[in-house]
Amino acid sequence: MKLLVHRLVIIAAMCLAAPAVFAHHGYATYDMSKELTLKGTVTEFEWINPHAVIDFAVKDEKGAVTKWTAETDSPNILHRGGWVKTTLKPGDGVTISGNRAKDGSNDLRLKKIVKDDGTVLNPQAAY
Amino acid sequence: MKNRLIVSVTVLAMLTVFSAGVFAKRQQSAPTAQNASSPATSTSTRPDFTGLWMVHKNLYSLASDEGVMTEWGQAKFKTNVSDGDPSLRCFPMGVPHIMAVPFPLEIVQTPARLIMLFEFDHHVREIFTDGREHPKDVDPKWMGHSTGKWDGDTRVVDTVGLNDKVWIDLLGHPQSEQLHVVERLRLSDPETLEDNITINDPKSYTRPLTTKVVYTLRKGWNLEEFSCAENNPRISGAKKK
């Protein structure tokens, strides 16, 4: 009995320690048949392999803010398409289009960004 | 009038010779030793695939529809999607998957081998063109065992010995150790490479799957550094610094 409890504690500890990995990454987790467009403000741009990530905030008509994330291509591919790591900065106003996660969470696979100054950013400009 | 005619004919002849030279440039240079594997084919038609290539578009699905999967394939597909993309954990993408992803691919053509250098985590694929056959009881691996033979101006690449730990595409469609991939590589023009891929995997699919991947020669590009291990903390689950 003591052994059983010990094992259950270990299993519970492992479950708590296990990070929520692979939840919303890679094409398999997105509904590639449906596109969503959102207007918001960049909160962070992570220029990192294997895929760069854009965090942005979307405010609704009542002022409530929702956090969203857009996953895109690798920095090398973005760079060949004209992007640099400062292409997006916190505070930038953006309209972001992408394919939403199949589970309905606030995650997109990026297709296009139009900045408020009119700049169009295509993550697939290199191919 | 006579002089003008002579000048015109001369210019036309020079232009013809020049353009023939340009188009012949990527068709030549197949060294003699390379042709030893299929001596029946004329050496003059052998193209040189050497160069840095980039896919035209992201072919994220290589399976035409979900209905083409066997019962085993459907079950494996569900498991794959649930487990997540192995390439995002830095495992090799395998063949044919790595041929269709939007990352640069450099090809080095030597007499005995076609060497493919992939920017994605710098994986390497060797295609033996020295006339050897696949080993017997080949041990399943990520990139398999590939041999290449000429069929006219087309390099036919045959790959077996692939494991079932990778996906055939970015959507998670499965592959088994029965997977047999046949690729037909050819230059449709001096700066366009085509890879016509046939995927035979009776354990996963009820019929062969076919797809065409098209690449453009990128003369100004070099392979750049890429480290999958840098990883995105959200993907790896590692703590963000």
Topology:
The complex is a heterodimer of chains A (127) and B (241).
Chain A: H1 2-17, E1 30-46, E2 53-59, E3 65-71, H2 75-80, E4 93-101, E5 107-115, E6 120-121
Parallel strand pairs in A: 3-5
Antiparallel strand pairs in A: 1-2, 1-4, 2-3, 4-5, 5-6
Chain B: H1 2-25, E1 51-55, H2 71-83, E2 105-109, E3 113-118, E4 124-128, E5 145-151, E6 154-160, E7 180-189, E8 192-200, E9 209-217, H3 233-236
Parallel strand pairs in B: 4-5
Antiparallel strand pairs in B: 1-2, 1-9, 2-3, 3-4, 5-6, 6-7, 7-8, 8-9
Structure description:
The complex is a heterodimer of chains A (about 130) and B (about 240). Chain A is α+β, with helices and mostly antiparallel strands. In chain A, strands 1-2-3-5-4 form a five-stranded mixed barrel. In chain A, a hairpin with a 5-residue loop joins strand 4 and strand 5. Chain A is globular. The termini of chain A are far apart. About 10% of the residues of chain A have low confidence. Chain B is α+β, with helices and mostly antiparallel strands. Chain B is about 15% helix and about 25% strand. In chain B, strands 1-2-3-4-5-6-7-8-9 form a nine-stranded mixed β-barrel. In chain B, a hairpin with a 5-residue loop joins strand 3 and strand 4. Chain B is globular and about 45 Å long. Chains A and B meet through helix 2 of A and helix 2 and helix 3 of B.
